[in-house]
């Protein structure tokens, strides 16, 4: 295998978002869960996205895991590695975007371009500020995220708090002046001692400039928009690579399990709509803690419904309920309990045979996929921007299709679309 592009994603839904974007822009892609074990049999592809669950773990562990992933990707020929972060820059003052970016750049004396813009999902960066639709990041629903509440929209400020190196900026005006002007500005910033550069981007055309220029260096950091820019630059530069996976025959709807742990507004709306059509069990942390419900009871309920069609289990709750629960029991404890519970439900039902497993929420998807022990996926067709159909590789779950949806992604009817899609 000789890779054109390597990527390291800090969560699993982010990885499939990126993999889908790369596939949609002409690259053949595999997503692996963690660094692939020796001897893994992967198809011949242009890009590998290694999914880590490193967004909210201690920074030193995130750095160690990312460097191991980088070493594997470079050993397979990747000259450029993209560190895939969230398009809403999910992180804290401790990291992990800054520490991981610094560590990946150091061996190559790289000065990564950092840009979380993803215009297809309405994430744009202007004057260094990140916007979610028309809201600044700190005024968007991300301000209430259960794990990484984002209370500032200034990317240079957020990055400076996390990085040991000086952080430069690349304005939209410079980007729109074209590749040569950008290259001149980057070399000026490098001479000024910058270790990374926050770039504006509002449209895909801006990201195409960034993608072309980023390929001069060994590392970049960004969301799927950066992936789009890199993929387009590679496909043009190398005269067309691979084709996306073909669609498959329609599935029987039986055995389609949906698990939702995301509390993002988009997921809450999607669940409300799905509830009109499909059986949805709302699982409360209070009931689990009080012992008035159990994994066994939920599995029994789901098994009955899965025999006829889809079944949903959701822990998702509104920001005020999340805040109350966290205040009473501790944020990490509640997250761990709910993630473990959904993962255990998935494991028990998958061992009996599921046709499709749809998970909403990045941390939640990480917990579920880890518990199932799936090592890699082939990226299938895109169901919504940033959300592909995943075909599990390996014998254990050979016929299982998964959908790992970032909490904020997908339109209101996403769940039904994902259930009935080919
Ligand atoms: N009712 C709830 N109260 C508090 N936290 C919750 C609740 N339901 C889910 N969570 C936790 O919120 C977090 C949601 O994060 P994640 O799964 O990454 O979703 P998203 O993709 O929307 O960020 C998870 O850790 C999950 O366990
Ligand atoms: O870039 C994005 O927004 C997504 O790919 C992503 O990383 C989302 O993370 P979660 O909301 O935790 O799924």
Automatic annotation (TrEMBL):
Similarity section: Belongs to the four-carbon acid sugar kinase family.
UniProt-recorded Gene Ontology molecular function terms: ATP binding; kinase activity
UniProt entry keywords in alphabetical sequence: ATP-binding, Carbohydrate metabolism, Kinase, Nucleotide-binding, Transferase
Signal peptide start and end residues: none
Annotated function: Catalyzes the ATP-dependent phosphorylation of 3-oxo-tetronate to 3-oxo-tetronate 4-phosphate.
Domain Four-carbon acid sugar kinase nucleotide binding: 257-415
Enzyme Commission number, as recorded: 2.7.1.217
Family matches, as Pfam families: NBD_C, SBD_N
Domain Four-carbon acid sugar kinase N-terminal: 5-227
Catalytic activities: 3-dehydro-L-erythronate + ATP = 3-dehydro-4-O-phospho-L-erythronate + ADP + H(+); 3-dehydro-D-erythronate + ATP = 3-dehydro-4-O-phospho-D-erythronate + ADP + H(+)
Protein name: 3-oxo-tetronate kinase
Record-linked InterPro entries: 4-carb_acid_sugar_kinase_N, 4-carb_acid_sugar_kinase_N_sf, NBD_C, NBD_C_sf, OtnK
Top EC group: transferase
């Amino acid at each position: 295998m000789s890779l054109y592009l390597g990527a390291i994603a800090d969560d699993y839904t982010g990885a499939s978002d990126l993999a889908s974007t790369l596939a949609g822009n002409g690259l053949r892609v595999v997503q692996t869960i963690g660094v692939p074990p020796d001897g893994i049999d992967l198809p011949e592809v242009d890009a590998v996205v290694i999914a880590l669950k490193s967004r909210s773990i201690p920074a030193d562990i995130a750095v160690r895991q990312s460097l191991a992933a980088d070493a594997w990707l470079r050993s397979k020929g990747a000259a450029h590695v993209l560190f895939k972060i969230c398009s809403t820059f999910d992180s804290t003052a401790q990291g992990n975007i800054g520490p991981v970016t610094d560590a990946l750049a150091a061996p190559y004396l790289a000065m990564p371009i950092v840009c979380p813009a993803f215009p297809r999902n309405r994430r744009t960066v202007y004057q260094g500020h990140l916007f979610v639709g028309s809201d600044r990041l700190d005024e968007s629903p991300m301000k209430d995220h259960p794990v990484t509440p984002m209370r500032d929209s200034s990317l240079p400020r957020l990055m400076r708090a996390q990085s040991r190196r000086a952080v430069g900026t690349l304005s939209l005006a410079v980007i729109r002046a074209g590749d040569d002007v950008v290259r001149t500005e980057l070399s000026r910033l490098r001479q000024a001692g910058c270790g990374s550069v926050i770039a504006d981007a509002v449209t895909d055309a801006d990201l195409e400039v960034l993608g072309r220029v980023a390929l001069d260096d060994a590392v970049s950091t960004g969301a799927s928009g950066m992936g789009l820019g890199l993929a387009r630059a590679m496909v043009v530069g190398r005269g067309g690579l691979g084709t996306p996976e073909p669609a498959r025959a329609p599935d029987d709807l039986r055995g389609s399990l949906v698990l939702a742990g995301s509390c993002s507004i988009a997921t809450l709306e999607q669940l409300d709509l799905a509830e009109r059509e499909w059986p949805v069990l709302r699982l409360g942390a209070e009931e689990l803690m009080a012992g008035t419900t159990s994994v066994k009871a939920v599995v029994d309920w789901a098994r009955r419904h899965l025999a006829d069609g889809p079944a949903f289990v959701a822990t998702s709750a509104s920001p005020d309920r999340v805040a109350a629960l966290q205040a009473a029991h501790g944020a990490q404890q509640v997250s761990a309990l709910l993630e473990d519970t959904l993962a255990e439900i998935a494991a028990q039902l998958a061992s009996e045979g599921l046709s499709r497993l749809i998970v909403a929420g990045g941390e939640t998807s990480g917990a579920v996929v880890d518990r199932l022990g799936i090592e890699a996926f082939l990226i299938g067709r895109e169901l919504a921007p940033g959300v592909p159909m995943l075909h599990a590789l390996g014998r254990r779950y050979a016929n299982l299709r998964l959908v790992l949806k970032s909490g904020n992604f997908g339109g209101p009817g996403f769940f039904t679309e994902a259930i009935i899609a080919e």
